[in-house]
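Quick entry between incubations.
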Amino acid sequence: MKAAYLGPEATFTDIAVQSIFPNVERIAYKTIPECLEAVKEKKVEMAVVPFENALEGSVHLTVDYLYHEENPPIRGEIIVPIEQHFMVHPAQANDWQEVEKIVSHPHALAQCHKFLHHEFRRATIEQMTSTAAAAKFVSEHPELKWGAIANELAAQQYDLTIVKANVHDYLFNHTRFIALSYEEIDAKASSTLQKSTIMVTLPADRAGALHQVLSAFAWRQINLSKLESRPLKTGLGNYFFMIDINHPIEDVLVQYALKEIEALGCEVKVLGSYSSFLVK
Amino acid sequence: MKAAYLGPEATFTDIAVQSIFPNVERIAYKTIPECLEAVKEKKVEMAVVPFENALEGSVHLTVDYLYHEENPPIRGEIIVPIEQHFMVHPAQANDWQEVEKIVSHPHALAQCHKFLHHEFRRATIEQMTSTAAAAKFVSEHPELKWGAIANELAAQQYDLTIVKANVHDYLFNHTRFIALSYEEIDAKASSTLQKSTIMVTLPADRAGALHQVLSAFAWRQINLSKLESRPLKTGLGNYFFMIDINHPIEDVLVQYALKEIEALGCEVKVLGSYSSFLVK
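Done. Structure below.
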């Protein structure tokens, strides 16, 4: 089985794939839409893309693409702890405190704001397209006094020296990735939680419609683990809602709730019913 | 009265201020937190910052700052239509179709994706910190074959020639700005709508709490014009909700609803009760 993932090699998405699907052939793509299109065009059988980060919120590109386009179903979610390390080229390892420039993805730089502010007040900060791209650049320029913030896999992949581990400000940061495929997927890990994700568009201009939707779940004691709004792109104040249900979609109570929500005039799109995997 | 706004001169925030508060002294600040801190430190009496865009969604920096910090109340919202134009230095106006590089804010570039894709396939696209900064840069480099995407005020301010007007893909795009102040504000425009904005944090691990909150509004027929989630930054799946109420906060029914929501174990933060202004 081939899996498209948001590359380059050694991104957090790559960690998600390697942890849960060790036997797939991994193929890096540059953007989230390209990963999803690769599955739709049958170039690969699975796509793994980031979906939500505990600090930054949803990955809008993924959410909007899933709402506006037809896609393969979500077959699994993979929750990866985000641990950022400060790394330099081995040639610079003794003088790492004198680095002049630090490169990484904008989110990683934001997540390590306190570390950067306290340890590297005079260094220049520069954004790159991914933590892995930053690590790669540093590895290719041993002559520069540059450092990268990236994960452990990137340090291994690009032969960099981690001179300070765990430089992220928040200890409980996680990112949630989703695996999408038209086929059943075969995960290495075991899961105890089955979830479903739906997107609901409310009828225009009816006050209280969201309350009705939540009522349909509440009186059935169906537990929702997430409710998030996104703009519909049709005008200020128009949203769709992404809802995570902690039950398989085949559950009779869930099926009846969805049918009633549609009967109330809402549009419902089921993104998938899947297992949740946690990477240790 | 002095007003801090997200600068430089001729941003869309500047348009919001000039349209509704023509008599204030405008002072440009570089970031949203600096605008809000200027009011708290009494350097100015009012701050005007972007809050939500119809295509991109909430401005997370503003929302998160209002949630996590103490702030002056919101006294007004200003809704500005977003119209983007393609402009060049007058020295390049005859050869505008040959521009080699196009600069603007990332959101403006995204909003004009179709135009750029069809008309300027071979030109390089470069991000700048604001549409106004892009216009300023082009105005200072008459020798470069560069163009900027920015608003009409920026073209006037920096003496650029609009060679193609209204190059944005979506016609109904608006941005919502908020004016915050410890004092009453004096708007030039008249408003027919009074709104209130609150932020609600649900009690941890109680299924159905959001349903209870919405029920408290629904049975009282209190109309909510917006409900949006944002991560609490305490772990995946923990959110607070921003809710817009189409009633003044003093309304008896609103007051009772808020008291009950607090009695249910929710934290409620009132951001303000204010007039809504529409810029034509």
